[in-house]
């Protein structure tokens, strides 16, 4: 069932492992990226509601990878809960991989 997650948002990539997922998108315009990611999150929320899944917003983070020294403020949410914006992310796989920005 997890493989049926929304894929109707063009050029938004997902990576799935068991019941965990990652979403990623590349581009040069931060406002456009934020809007595209938010579209996917909105579609994901509808899919979760349909299948009675709940996103663990406490564990959900967004990371903006950029070469810019100025970090623009971004805001993303799912199900009315704001997603934490971090400077790096850890992948929980028993090894504790860390992805810095």
Report on the architecture of this protein.
With 101 residues, this protein is of the alpha+beta class. The protein has one domain. 22% of the residues lie in helices and 26% in strands. The strands form four sheets. A two-stranded antiparallel ribbon has the order 1-2. The longest helix is centred in the middle third of the chain and has 22 residues, at 30-51. The protein is globular and about 40 Å long.
Q: Ranges with pLDDT <50 over ≥5 residues?
A: none
Number of domains: 1
The largest sheet is: 2 strands, antiparallel
Distance between the termini: 32 Å
List the keywords:
single chain, 101 residues, alpha+beta, two-stranded antiparallel sheet, two-stranded parallel sheet, 1 helix, 22% helix, globular
What's the arrangement of secondary structure elements?
Layout: E1 13-17, E2 20-24, H1 30-51, E3 61-63, E4 77-78, E5 81-82, E6 84-86, E7 89-91, E8 97-99
Parallel strand pairs: 3-6
Antiparallel strand pairs: 1-2, 4-5, 7-8
């Amino acid at each position: 069932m997890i493989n049926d997650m929304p894929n109707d948002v063009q050029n938004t990539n997902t990576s799935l492992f068991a019941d965990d997922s990652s979403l990623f998108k590349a581009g040069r315009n931060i406002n456009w990226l934020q809007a595209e990611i938010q579209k996917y999150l909105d579609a994901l929320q509808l899919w979760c509601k349909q299948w009675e899944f709940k996103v663990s917003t406490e564990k959900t983070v967004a990371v903006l990878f950029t070469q810019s020294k100025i970090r623009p403020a971004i805001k993303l949410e799912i199900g009315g809960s704001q997603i934490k914006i971090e400077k790096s992310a850890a992948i929980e796989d028993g090894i504790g991989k860390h992805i810095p920005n």
